[in-house]
Specification:
Length: 230
């Protein structure tokens, strides 16, 4: 995305050869107040999702989905009085609307059809297939972005396949974002003990979870992965 002289933003895409194409204008930049960012991008579906970010927790008052030929597929707005955080699947086919004022999440498709309502739940990421979600309980974090005790769930049925140990949190702000298993339903993400915040005793671990199992890498193996890549 690029900033234009009128404070609007332009969305660009690049093909494998490195050729760039301008596809749409979306959102606006506010001095010291945030601006638009890419929420999802898929070469398979040829769709880009953009969120007009307002707050440090990722709140947005408007989101768009645009096709690579510039067609506007969705434009969704919410009230500034009720902060919302939006999470898109990688191909922007489904999206989660987390209402900070209630702590609940509504999942919809591009047509706006409601696919599910999750009480006291925040979705951090959808799996590559979109069938599963990395989520967190928002009942104790009303009014902000939940980060504690993530779990893997089938967001349609509500079935939970994995839960993090007690007193742990998702620490993407320090150690990097959630990574999706290509063409699968696994996630890799950094997890941290809450003691790191409360007692300055950090012990990061790389957690890999899927509906069929989970694996943890901590200490030297984690740091080696973090520095050198998998």
């Amino acid at each position: 995305m690029t900033l234009n002289p009128d404070n609007s933003a332009t969305v660009w895409i690049a093909d494998p050869s490195g050729a760039w194409s301008k596809i749409a204008t979306a959102g606006s930049w506010v001095m010291n107040g945030g601006g638009p960012s890419i929420a999802a991008c898929s070469g398979t579906s040829q769709r880009v999702a953009v969120a007009d970010s307002l707050g440090g927790n990722g709140e947005a008052d408007e989101v768009w989905v645009v096709s690579w030929n510039g067609q506007l597929l969705m434009d969704h707005k919410t009230s500034l009085k009720a902060p919302h955080i939006y999470t898109f699947s990688r191909d922007a086919s489904v999206w989660a609307d987390f209402d900070e004022s209630t702590g609940d999440t509504t999942v919809r498709d591009l047509m706006g059809n409601q696919l599910g309502t999750l009480k006291s739940t925040f979705i951090e990421a959808f799996s590559w297939s979109g069938h599963y979600a990395l989520a967190m309980d928002s009942s104790s974090d009303t009014g902000t972005r939940p980060i504690h005790n993530p779990y893997l769930m089938d967001w349609r049925s509500g079935q939970v396949f994995w839960r993090s140990p007690a007193s742990t949190m998702l620490d993407t702000g320090i150690y990097g974002p959630v990574a999706l298993q290509p063409n699968g339903d696994g996630f890799a993400f950094p997890i941290e003990s809450t003691d790191c915040v409360n007692l300055a005793r950090c012990n990061p671990a790389l957690e890999i979870v899927s509906p069929i199992g989970s694996w943890r890498f901590s200490g030297s193996p984690y740091l080696s992965w973090f520095i050198n890549g998998p």
